């Protein structure tokens, strides 16, 4: 069984083919980062225009790479949300056109379900499992008791982890996206500043990063006023220590409370070296097996959409010809709408 998937929710135009749910055949990602850099973030209209320009070329490359045609595919999967509406529309319309022309089943996929299922291209899932989703727009702990079922046990109350990285990076005048730059600097610096850790109420699995972000900005401001020399490396190391401490501590506590078999890490911030190391240390003596995808499967790609789409397809989910982009698509509700009739 072959699934062709399209992902255009943000700033990468991506097409992939996955065989039998877990075997990656091809994974093509056309990134627009260079075009958004000078604006310090993703400009939605520019993203949409890039997607429309790159969509067919990316599809062509994915088919060339795999030596296959659309006729060989069993279904067409596409990210229907969440994401930027104008960006999503390009992928949704491309997927619908292909599916309609070739009369193939169409499967709408939740972007975060995709980030989670990226891990299954590396290793089979064992339930119950917990996924720590840390991306540009999301930070949440998701409990999965079976395929395609998602229960959010904790989430950010303000900024996402990736968003905090990008905002702090901007204050340090680092290029967009800032996450990888802070990560690099953090390894050259030391934790000389004690930034707050938002543990929230006892037992809560929610997160909060806006206070930390403000603390970093205030500290830099104060240093400037005093003419004090603060090393960017140390600021990065101190900021990263706070983020990583909270994420890894809550992940371990949740894994033990829910007695999960696996702890899965998903989303762009899963590429963070500090987070990977902290989780590896924390989970060394845990019953739960830690899974972290390779870097190319952490950030946005279509292989993950194919992996999640294949499962949804095999569970009976089909989207109708009225499939639309849904920028606010809810993960739990997406998981609940299993079989049969069109979305
Ligand atoms: P979402 O998936 O929530 O819709 P998104 O698709 O924009 O958002 P991703 O592509 O999953 O997010 O991840 C991008 C984010 O990951 C950016 O905020 C980026 O700074 C961050 N990121 C990437 N690499 C690293 C790293 N090494 N350390 C920290 N953050 C990183
Ligand atoms: Mg991205
Ligand atoms: Fe993403």
UniProtKB/TrEMBL annotation:
Main localisation: cytoplasm
Binding site for Fe cation: 111, 115, 300
Organism: Halobacillus kuroshimensis
InterPro entries: ATPase_NBD, Gcp-like_dom, KAE1/TsaD, TsaD
Molecular function in Gene Ontology: tRNA N(6)-L-threonylcarbamoyladenine synthase activity
Family of the protein in this entry: Belongs to the KAE1 / TsaD family.
Lineage of producing organism: Bacteria, Bacillati, Bacillota, Bacilli, Bacillales
Keywords: Acyltransferase, Cytoplasm, Iron, Metal-binding, Transferase, tRNA processing
Amino acids binding substrate: 133-137, 166, 179, 183, 272
Entry protein name: tRNA N6-adenosine threonylcarbamoyltransferase
Gene3D superfamilies found in the cross-reference section: 3.30.420.40
Cofactors, names only: Fe(2+)
């Amino acid at each position: 069984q072959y699934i062709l998937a399209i992902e255009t929710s943000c700033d990468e135009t991506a097409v992939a083919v996955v065989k039998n749910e877990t075997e990656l055949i091809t994974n093509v990602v056309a990134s627009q980062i260079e075009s958004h850099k000078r604006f310090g973030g993703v400009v939605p209209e520019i993203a949409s225009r890039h997607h429309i320009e790159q969509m067919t070329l990316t599809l062509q490359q994915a088919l060339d790479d795999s030596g296959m045609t659309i006729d060989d595919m069993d279904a067409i999967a596409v990210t229907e949300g969440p994401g930027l509406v104008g960006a999503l529309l390009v992928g949704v319309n491309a997927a619908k056109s292909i599916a309609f022309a070739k009369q193939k089943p169409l499967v709408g996929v939740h972007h975060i379900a995709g980030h989670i299922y990226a891990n299954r291209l590396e290793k089979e899932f064992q339930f119950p499992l917990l996924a720590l989703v840390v991306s540009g727009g999301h930070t949440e702990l998701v409990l999965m008791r079976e395929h395609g079922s998602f229960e959010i046990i904790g989430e950010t109350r303000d900024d996402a982890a990736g968003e905090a990285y990008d905002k702090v990076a901007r204050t340090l005048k680092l290029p967009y996206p800032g996450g990888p730059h802070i990560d690099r600097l953090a390894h050259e610096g030391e934790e000389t500043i004690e930034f707050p850790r938002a543990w929230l109420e006892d037992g809560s699995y929610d997160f909060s990063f806006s206070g930390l972000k403000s603390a970093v900005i205030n500290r830099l401001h104060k240093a400037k006023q005093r003419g004090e020399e603060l090393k960017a490396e140390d600021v990065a190391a101190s900021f990263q220590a706070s983020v990583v401490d909270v994420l890894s501590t809550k992940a371990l506590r949740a894994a033990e409370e829910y007695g999960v078999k696996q702890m899965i890490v998903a989303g762009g911030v899963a590429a963070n070296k500090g987070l990977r190391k902290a989780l590896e240390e924390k989970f060394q003596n845990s019953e739960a097996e830690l899974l972290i995808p390779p870097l190319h499967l952490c950030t946005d790609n279509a292989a993950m959409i194919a992996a999640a789409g294949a499962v949804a397809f095999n569970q009976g989910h089909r989207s109708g010809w009225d499939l639309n982009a849904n920028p606010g698509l809810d993960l739990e509700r997406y998981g609940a709408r299993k079989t049969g009739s069109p979305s």
